[in-house]
Design goal:
398 residues, mainly alpha, Four Helix Bundle (Hemerythrin (Met), subunit A)
């Protein structure tokens, strides 16, 4: 049974990472580098020791993580923090005896790694599927509403000939989105920087966009101004009488949503890790739901209760932002750019896959960043509500 589990885990790694990964060899190399880092530290080469310890984790242990994380997530989580303790101790000049104790814990865990037999649970796949569904559905719904608005404007001008330009532009935007996803995946795989730094930067950009979208969706005035701007662009394209101009307006409008979708999925794919397949299941379900939405909008001519959907979309968008903040800080920590103050063993810890999808990692820095993000959201929502309740001076009855 153990051999079967290990074989399945190895097959999973082979399909998830470029090339064939020899898990046992990566674990042995990580063990040897930990020992080498202690020798370098003992000889006074602190900078070299830190780099060697970091290489043991980033360049070797991380490649062995996927199957081990699936089989025993608790042990892998503990090892991640022990590696962080080793790096932090070397950077801060800790006593050699303390570092030897940490290294001993790491070595013992490395020896146990080949006999891991646990699974991933249910919550992580559920979160991954929910995330996959929500991102595509939110962005797809926004694109559908924008297309409906453009087609409605063309119908008001009774210029049916230009409707083909809308569908051409939308089709080109979908194709460009698919190419963007493929290009982003390839470029990130060959980027000359660490995977952790890539994950951190992607998370930061995603957080900024999600934060903007959260408050934009709550402000009716901003949505109206955006719709007016879009109608003005469509009006200019219609006046030109060119199918290409209408297609270009539609393309730029829809592709913006597609680009955001690619960015969010890149961040979510990293967080999903071994349960990434469930993320794609959520994507497939969202695609089916969007087919129904498009049919209701363009075939049946029905109006959707989008106003009632905004609170739910805002809530989910805010939760994504909080999760990505935690993951971004954690990625900066793993890359050695931020300190790590471990709370492992002092606060309840989640399954590593759940922690990656929620951003809830047991360090002071990640939890503080998420707490600050929640506080910013609370203050921002309170300010918006106060503005909405404030009576308008210009609109007062005479």
């Amino acid at each position: 049974m153990k051999r079967l589990l290990l074989l399945l885990a190895l097959l999973g790694v082979a399909s998830a990472a470029p090339g064939q990964v020899d898990v046992a060899a990566e674990l042995r190399t990580a063990h040897d580098l930990v020992a080498q880092s202690l020798r370098e530290y003992a000889s006074g080469q602190r900078e070299a020791a830190f780099k060697t310890a970091r290489a043991a984790y980033l360049d070797h242990f991380e490649y062995a993580e996927p199957p081990l994380r699936v089989l025993n997530p608790d042990l892998i989580l503990e090892m991640e923090y022990r590696f962080a303790d080793l790096r932090n101790g070397m950077k801060s000049g800790a006593n050699l005896s303390e570092l030897r104790a940490v290294a001993g814990d790491i070595d013992g865990s490395l020896r146990k790694a080949e006999s891991i037999v646990n699974g991933t649970g249910v919550l992580a796949p559920t979160l991954a599927a929910t995330g996959g569904f929500t991102i595509l559905f939110r962005e797809g719904l926004e694109a559908a509403l924008l297309m409906a608005a453009i087609l409605a404007y063309l119908a008001s001008t009774r210029n049916d000939r230009l409707r083909r330009g809308v569908w051409w532009g939308a089709g080109a935007a979908l194709a460009a989105t698919a190419l963007t996803w493929a290009a982003a995946t390839y470029l990130l795989s060959i980027a000359p920087i660490s995977r952790e730094l890539i994950s951190a930067v992607t998370s930061v950009i995603a957080v900024v966009i999600l934060f903007y979208l959260s408050f934009w969706m709550l402000q009716q005035g901003d949505r109206k101004r955006s719709a007016e701007f879009m109608r003005a662009r469509v009006s200019q394209a219609v006046q030109s009488g060119s199918l290409g101009a209408v297609a270009l307006v539609t393309f730029t409008t829809i592709y913006r949503e597609g680009f955001e979708t690619v960015l969010f999925y890149q961040a979510l794919a990293v967080a999903s890790g071994p349960v990434q397949g469930y993320m794609y299941l959520g994507v497939a379900l969202a695609a089916l739901a969007l087919v129904a939405v498009f049919a209701a909008l363009f075939r049946l001519g029905r109006r959707l209760p989008t106003q009632q959907l905004f609170p739910a979309l805002v809530t989910v968008t805010a939760l994504f932002a909080v999760a990505f903040v935690g993951n971004g800080v954690r990625a900066f920590q793993e890359a050695g750019w931020l300190p790590v103050t471990n709370l492992y063993g002092r606060v309840p810890t989640l399954d590593p896959n759940v922690a990656a999808l929620t951003g809830l990692h047991p360090t002071v820095e990640t939890l503080a960043a998420q707490g600050l993000m929640v506080l910013v959201y609370v203050i921002g929502f309170a300010v918006l509500r106060a503005r909405e309740r404030r009576p308008s001076r210009t609109g007062a009855p005479v």
